[in-house]
Write a structure and sequence with these properties.
Layout: E1 9-14, E2 23-29, E3 32-38, H1 50-54, E4 69-71, H2 88-91, E5 92-94, H3 97-115, E6 120-123, H4 130-144, E7 149-150, H5 158-168, E8 185-189, H6 193-196, H7 198-209, E9 213-217, E10 230-232, H8 239-252, H9 258-264, E11 265-266, H10 268-275, H11 280-287, H12 291-303, E12 307-311, H13 313-316, H14 321-334, E13 344-347, H15 354-359, E14 366-367, E15 371-372, H16 376-386, H17 398-406, E16 412-416, H18 420-423, H19 427-436, E17 439-444, E18 456-459, E19 468-471, E20 476-480, H20 493-503, H21 513-523, H22 532-538, E21 540-542, E22 568-569, E23 588-593, H23 609-614, E24 619-622, H24 624-630, E25 637-642, E26 645-653, E27 661-665, E28 678-681, E29 688-689, E30 693-699
Parallel strand pairs: 6-7, 6-16, 8-9, 8-12, 9-10, 11-22, 12-13, 16-17, 17-18, 23-27, 24-26
Antiparallel strand pairs: 1-2, 2-3, 4-5, 4-18, 14-15, 19-20, 20-21, 23-30, 25-26, 25-30, 28-29
This protein binds iron/sulfur cluster.
Keywords: 4Fe-4S, Iron, Iron-sulfur, Metal-binding, Oxidoreductase, Repeat
Protein name: Formate dehydrogenase subunit alpha
EC number: 1.17.1.9
Length: 703
Amino acid sequence: EVALSVPDKQVDSVCPYCGVGCQLTYNVKDNRILYVEGRNGPANLGRLCVKGRYGFDYAHHPHRLTKPLIRREGVPKTGDFTMDPDRVLDVFREASWEEALALAGGKLAGIRDLHGGVALAGFGSAKGSNEEAYLFQKLVRTGFGTNNVDHCTRLCHASSVSALLEGIGSGAVSNPVMDVTRAEVIVVIGANPTVNHPVAATWIKNAVRSGAKLVVLDPRRSELARHAHRYLQFKPDTDVALLNAMMHVIVTEKLVDDGFIASRTIGYDELERNVAEYSPEAMAPICGIDAETIRYVARLYATSRGSMILWGMGVSQHVHGTDNARCLIALSLMTGQIGRPGTGLHPLRGQNNVQGASDAGLIPMMLPDYQRVDNPAARARFEAAWGATLDPKPGLTVVEIMDAIDAGQIRGMYIMGENPAMSDPDANHARAALAALEHLVVQDIFLTETAYLADVILPASAFPEKTGTFTNTDRLVQLGRQAIDPPGEARQDLWIIQQMANRLGLPWSYGHVSEVFDEMRRTMASIGGITWERLERNGAVVYPCMNEGDIGQPVVFTETFPREGGKARFVPADIIPADERPDGDYPMVLITGRQLEHWHTGSMTRRATVLDAIEPDPVALVHPLDLERMGITPGQAITIASRRGEVVLYARADDSSPVGAIFVPFCYYEAAINRLTNAALDPFGKIPEFKYCAIRVTPGGEV
Ligand code: SF4
């Protein structure tokens, strides 16, 4: 009946899922989205993937939170999470907004007044708008009085950003994805864009069809590898060995760009000395790629007229994630493959607004626009703009905050739209930490696994229920427009943040979302030239866009790098092994990631009818040889255990995973795989090692 209905309005917006930032149109009738169509946006030219096209009816799901909830007295924060809405009222009681806000804000203010701001922390969301991210971090910094504010960028590309800021002075991409269509050589490493950035993958395939040479480097053979000129299935955890060997070839065969190195970089001599020991012959047994292939790929990358590198979390989610990214940066600098169209470095950003949330200061060491909190001049500027005194000490990161709860330092948290009970490493520990808080406020659209542990739950708005700006992986600031109203008493997030701010003593009274964006423009030079009117007119503007009238810069670093002296810096890297290697007790390796149909912790896509119908059950992807060795038939339940916990799910035969390594998506609450992952951190980006830990697999168990 719905499918045959004729929409009564069409609303232009953007996709709420990945960082590609496809523009779309919601077709709406009687406050329900009937269907979605692709629009002619700069990143998608009308294309959409299965998530963007079919993943919209979660907004109408009966599990939506429609009233504020307060935990019933005496109900312990234990027991298994349930998706059963009938059991929600066993744990929580419904409350008025006034009562819920008074309790939520009042308790946090009480902890602040008694123990200081350092006893509080906030997680914002890369699913929220730029304006929500900006106000949330401003609330934590000026209302709580601490820099303990972070979000899922810490679990995603924090190590890439750390290396990029250190090496070239900017954490964002140098060139848009679409530049692959101008490249001669495209290197995709540690990324599976067909699954995680599907429309971006189509541009890569189009480029290959037009003659570009694609090189895929990945321990897991992605679908994209079918299109590759060369596919290098290197051993998990050996990125630095492989990349240093490539650089060794480029140095010894004199394929470096001497002019670029001399005029635009510093630190090359140290890098050259470091890679001298990494000959392809020495590294071949370590990374599992023969020396001649390493030589061939290194020559191909160095000598083309335009080579572009794109990478994902296969690079970043290691204890040596920053070192992996340092090697990629060095490759591009030593060959001059950056600063022109069809070249450059593109860390594929995951969430639809992880770029914008980071830009807006939703990270513990940076104010908006990557101004360091420990820089007195930067702090003084924001203190003047916000009329507040700011803490000069960088705050704690996501995993550090969980440890600080254990240590009794953090006592209260405000979590907006994040689900650390599912997404954090060693999730059993994360859940115990969240449960141990004196006061936890969660703002979300569903009773997530994290909300289940809350004291107060504030029902929020889904993506199509609000207007705001979202910044995609290409640095495009795009306008998402409200298409439907929130259900019941659910409210828009910007309103809720302001109400919380008021309860913490901040006299905020922003009206339209554009008022928040205007304040951001005044405090963030990179978007200073983007007016709300221009966004309404054009739908998207790329930054840097410093002054009104600037067209914005899709390709950056053409003349200079935003570092001291305008020069990029080489940072050498050596091999650091994974924190937890397989052994006799736990002989296999676990790699976690995503599926095409499901998004992150699954709270939206598992409630989207079409997507959940395609992938309804928790699965582990296991190589057929491993299945045979363990006597497991595909479809059978298996138990996977690490030193931190165990889960039961169904085995699926999958020869793209290397023998001895198992891939599990982290979206299934019934088999929350992050109960098993290792919380060891990269020392620079503080990102956990999701891509490698030791496990044991046994047949059987009950899903
Ligand atoms: Fe949405 Fe990403 Fe798919 Fe585009 S590629 S429709 S942004 S999930």
